[in-house]
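Note to self: keep these together.
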Amino acid sequence: MSDLSHADWTARAARLSFRAQAFIDGAFVDAGSGRVFDCVNPATGAVLAQVAECDAHDVDRAVTAARRAFDDGRWSRAAPGDRKAVLLKLADLIRANLHELALLDSLDMGKLVRDAVTIDAPGSAHFFQWYAEAIDKIYDEVAPTGPGDLALVRRVPLGVVGAVTPWNFPLDMATWKAAAALAAGNSVVLKPAEQSPLSALRLAELAAEAGIPDGVFNVVPGFGETAGQALGLHMDVDCLAFTGSTATGKRFMQYSGKSNLKQVWPETGGKSPNLVFADCHDLDHAADMAAFGIFFNQGEVCSANSRLYVDRRIKDDFVEKLITRAQGMQPGDPLDPASKMGAIVNEHQTSGIMRFIEAGRKTAHLVAGGDRVTVNGAGCFVQPTIFDDVAHDDPLARDEIFGPVLSVIPFDSEDDAIAMANDSIYGLAASVWTDDLSRACRVSDRLMAGTVSVNTVDALSAQTPFGGMKQSGFGRDLSLHSFEKYTALKTTWIKYRA
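Structure:
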């Protein structure tokens, strides 16, 4: 836990420098076109840096470097212990630069620096360490055969992995993709979100310092319709890992079909339900976590618990608890450790959230928040907002808002709650609150979600897979299962004289 004050963080931010060029083949370089785009602090509106605007030409340069590095084996055929040592050093370097990395993400997309320095940046170091430690602990197989035959089944790296990551957890999401892909022996071309590219570029510099060879880890900042599309259509990219919207995930699937049938692993939208039953005895804790589940990171979380289903018998009392918590979570300066929520990532996202809120005022009962506010006279800030008695077919309850907006929906029976929770195109996560073990197991089994958290929200760790069902995508980040995305099974069958 950092003990830096608001003044300390502000002073550090003023001294911060930014890596703004693309990182290709071990060097920072300008975009071939010379174009740049503004990287803006959403809390103040100030331009932080002008970042290289990569396009198809730059993506091709990066993929060519990645392919060359993969083919000559400088990383792909390095001994497991050697790759492990490099990634462990990278984890240590992330820890040595926690404050800088936390500031980059806070300034870039508006998240609380307190969260970035205690959750995001340490988590990224942990994930690199975890995957490094896994490298020399995964065994291949010998298939059962008859005399005179030896069948070896190995997991081998795919080659060049393209990774397209979102803006809500810039360093974390880059790590979730890159750590596993690199640990498996692949080369990586990372396209960070144009709203928040700065920590990915700094990560590239730290990776080179740790000893990752030139060409193995490349970062191409740019826009989705140019750099992202070029990565999706590139004929020499073997795998594309993506986190973002469902619509964009579908486009990457189309790009695969139009190009080389590259594997695409999308982790896409969510509208996670949170079910609170009357037999949950600690409703204060449930209310604490329900508020955290939607207002953490300004609600800009793919698995945010944005649909709250509450037993009608306790609904009014529970909503009062939530209102109290929302009133205590008003947005503030992201660099102030006392702030409870930060800024929305940009004007476009802020306006979209406000459109949902304005429409919701006409269809549901607004009981908390609902306004856009300024902090220090500027910025993209939205109050924590709660709508009560939301109809199940209201866009508030159907669409991914990606902001601090909670929809409360009452239910009368367990079957009713499950049916409404599952009636969604999404299936990323869900939460259940009950002190009845049988109900916890029964409801968890019936919920269509990649992760069901019981008596908590949004539980995850390096040891457990994270990903969705239905239009929330497929494939899994985290855990050993993520290696399945970045490797292929290769059989070598040997005949010998028995």
